Amino acid sequence: MLYAAFAVLFLTGAGWLWADEMKETATGEGWQSAAAWLLMTHGGAAMAVLLLLGALVPLHVRRGWLARRNRTSGTIMVACNAAFILTAFGLYYLGSESLRPWASRLHIAIGLLAPILLVIHILLGRRSRRGAPTLNS
Questions:
Q1: If 19 and its partner were Cys, which of 35, 98, 127, 131 is the partner (CB 3.0–4.6 Å)?
Q2: For residues 114 and 10, is the Cβ–Cβ distance under 8 A?
Q3: Exposed/middle/buried for residue 9 (C-beta within 10 Å: 0-12, 13-18, 19+)
Q4: pLDDT tens across 71-81, in order?
């Protein structure tokens, strides 16, 4: 479920980025409407991800940390999600014209890198799991 929610976040975020660029074209009105719909869907998916991340901390993050497995990529994932939350808060709630462009650029940059980081984290986790002791050993 978490992977699906992250996929929706990525697709709606990337789609919004494209639609936002296309607003200045001859078909801009349609892109404006698409951008609004994509941003609304992106926000809804973000709320679902926040709920899932809340469950992930005690179930996955804590267990991995205590097992001393995948700590580096896990810490990077936690930091990226924290940056997402902070920049989204800044974009949605802070009206500061000086902070908004900075928050937007950071949110977009992390958003474009997040799928790569997630895949790396998953692959490293699977690799470390193969070397982990089992109950029978």
A1: 35
A2: yes
A3: buried
A4: 999 999 999 99
pTM of the predicted model as reported, rounded to 2 decimal places: 0.84
| Residue 39, φ and ψ in degrees, nearest 5 | -65, -40
Helices (H), the chain: 2-22, 28-56, 62-66, 71-93, 99-130
Q: Residues near 10 by Cβ (< 8 Å), separated by ≥ 6?
A: 111, 114, 115
pLDDT of 135 higher than 70: no
Q: Which of 64, 46, 43, 62 minimizes the C-alpha distance to 5? A: 46
Q: Sort residue 135 into left (φ over 0), alpha (ψ -120 to 50) or beta.
A: alpha
